[in-house]
Design a protein that fits this description.
Layout lengths: L1 H20 L16 E2 L7 E2 L8 H7 L25
Antiparallel strand pairs: 1-2
């Protein structure tokens, strides 16, 4: 029973992983997409996570554009610096 539950959970994870890892603009983030595979317009070799996307996840992250519409994505804020104690 536990083995079947584990397999089901892993299968679900594989289905949602591309959507979780994808980079989308605010306009495209809530849209639903087909589950077919397309060809990236940037690299031409990588596979997109939907036939309706313009970019593969790798190119989307490298150039900072939405996978679906190729709109420029906002830059992530820099990681906060750890607090340091003043030295005397």
């Amino acid at each position: 029973m536990k083995k079947h539950l584990l397999i089901a959970c892993l299968g679900l994870l594989l289905l949602i992983a591309p959507a979780v890892l994808a980079d989308f603009c605010a306009k495209c983030a809530d849209m639903g997409f087909t589950a077919d595979i397309g060809k990236c317009t940037k690299c031409g070799e990588e596979k997109t996570t939907s036939g309706s996307h313009k970019l593969c996840p790798n190119c989307s992250q490298k150039i900072g554009q939405c996978e679906h519409c190729a709109a420029t994505l906002p830059k992530a804020p820099p990681a906060s610096q750890p607090a340091t104690e003043p030295t005397e």
